[in-house]
Amino acid sequence: MLESGLHMKGPASVTFWLQQWQNGSGGALEELTPLVYDDLRRLAARHLRAENPGHTLEATALVHELYLRISSIRTIDWKSRGQFVSVAALMMRRILTDHARRRQAAKRTPDARQKEHTADQLDLIAVDRALEKMSSDYPRHARIVQLCFFGGLDLPEVAQVMDLSLRTVERDWHFAKGWLKHEIAGF
Fold first, then answer.
1. Would you list the domain boundaries of the chain?
2. CA-closest candidate to residue 117, choices 131, 133, 103, 99
3. What's the whole-number average pLDDT of the chain?
4. What pTM did the predictor assign?
């Protein structure tokens, strides 16, 4: 609630509560949560649809794990809802990658010398490795991939969040898809 007692609605309120949270307001995260929870659940469901059936994480659990991780972050200079979704998407990808690595490690027998991958784990780990490499070689392109693929934003939204022209984002997105396809094929 604002000082005036009026509750703000829409993206501006998300930015307001993000900034309040960053500034140390104890109740800001509680105000922010209902404003973004449905978006985060949809984002989590989208991530999990890419996993094989029988994945042990559910969308709700993924969102809750995200909140555990993100609640301790105070160093981000929050600018917008789009930036929040971008950070959330990146963190969800890391949570799923960590989960895949733990599952992979648990499947190995102590005397096994070779890595055992299921198709979904290989894909997720390969995508993670490729994105890490892209982040160091082509950081802008990697951020566009994260916003589109993991954040669920369309190209005009990405252009707005990154303050780039739509044409630049389209060109970078085209390059990034080709680069990732080539890079992942090598894993």
1. 11-185
2. 103
3. 76
4. 0.58
